[in-house]
Amino acid sequence: SQALSETQKRMSRSFPTCFVECVPGVTGVSVLRRAAGLAESRLYVALRGVVGESCSPSALAALRWLYTAVGSVAPRLEAIPLYEGWESRPLADRIDCAVAAQVPEAVGFEGAVLVRAAAVAGVATDAEASTVHEAVAVGGTFDRLHAGHRLLLAASALVCRSRLYVGVAGDRLLANKPLAHLVEPFDVRASNVVDFVARLKPTLDVRISSLVDPKAPPKAATVEEISALVVSEETLPGARQVAAMRRDAGITTPLEFVVVGLVFARDKPDASVADKLSSSHLRAADDGAALAATTPTVVSHHHAAAV
User: How far apart are CA 64 and CA 268, in angstroms?
Assistant: First the structure.
């Protein structure tokens, strides 16, 4: 058979840490998915034309685009967005593979394998009005940190300048979840959140709290300095309840809702909430894989005789 081309050989491999540069939109999806398929554990995504320290609609839309595309290929992959000007500070990791027209001249790219991609077209800088908050709150279960969680945390880091309050559901609060015995312990989930945010924006002061009582007010309802709450579309009603608790506590500082879209397990135009990427689905997948690994193969009498 004909020998594989050099590019095909590279595409058949996987690399611990990869880098890709792309413009959010239809034309960039295939490049981003290609990179997600090559990365084993971590993927840095340079988003052309997207400015950090901004919670403009286009910046949040770019994050949703990123995690939807990555989630459709590798839902558990740690994808880290990089914004305009990212070259001014070194990356935390050595890059093993770059999906780009050429390897950028930045610290950490020496020796990286290059998988050729079309040159990235220039785009205008995002100049929309934006608001950045000193203190921001976000909450979730964060079990099996996946693309949906990473979107929520990336949006939080994007709009936060100093302190990020993260409410992580306590173990007892998740006791009635499907396959609850497979839920990662609180300490593991909290540690994963802290580690990911540190890669997104190492200057942030991340403050973890345990959510143990669904009726108890969260930090966003009791800490006056928090001025923004990051939520997904489906949890917006709960955010309104938090705002009401805040008013009841006598806090007059306005609370801005930063709403991010859902990330779906399958990229299809008619996707509904039932199709969203979820920890429950990933636990079920892990449970099925574990069951398959421990179930002995049954050989029929007919097959045994043939052997």
Answer: 15
CB 43 within 8 A of CB 78: yes
Q: What are phi and psi of 47, to 5 degrees?
A: -95, 105
**Are residues 24 and 65 in contact, defined by beta-carbon separation less than 8 angstroms?**
yes
- Number of helical (H) and strand (E) elements in the chain, helices listed first: 9, 10
Other Cβ atoms closer than 10 A to 277: 22
Q: Residue 220: which of 135, 134, 133, 131 has the closest Cα?
A: 135
Task: Tell me the C-alpha distance between 28 and 256, whole Å.
Answer: 31
Q: Which helix (H) or strand (E) holds 139?
A: strand 133-140
Rounded Cα distance, 145 and 150, in Å = 7
CB 134 within 8 A of CB 223: no
Q: What is the pLDDT of residue 291?
A: 55
274: Cβ contacts below 8 Å, ≥ 6 apart: none
> What type of residue sits at position 74?
A
Burial 119-154 (b: 16+ CB within 10 A, else e): ebeeeeebeeebeebebbbbbbbbbbbbbbbbbbbb
* DSSP β-bridge partners for residue 145: none
Contact status, residue 148 vs residue 163, Cβ threshold 8 Å: no
> Which residues are 232's β-sheet partners?
260
- pLDDT at position 90, please? 80
Q: Which helix (H) or strand (E) holds 116?
A: strand 113-116
Residues in Cβ contact with 280 at an 8 Å cutoff, skipping those fewer than 6 apart: 177, 178, 179
How far does Cα 12 stand from its chain's mean position?
Answer: 25
Give pLDDT < 70 ranges for the chain. 1-13, 53-54, 107, 117-130, 266-275, 289-307
Look up the pTM and report it.
0.82
Q: How far, in Å, CA of 120 to CA of 247, rounded?
A: 48
* Contact of 144 with 192, CB cutoff 8 Å: no
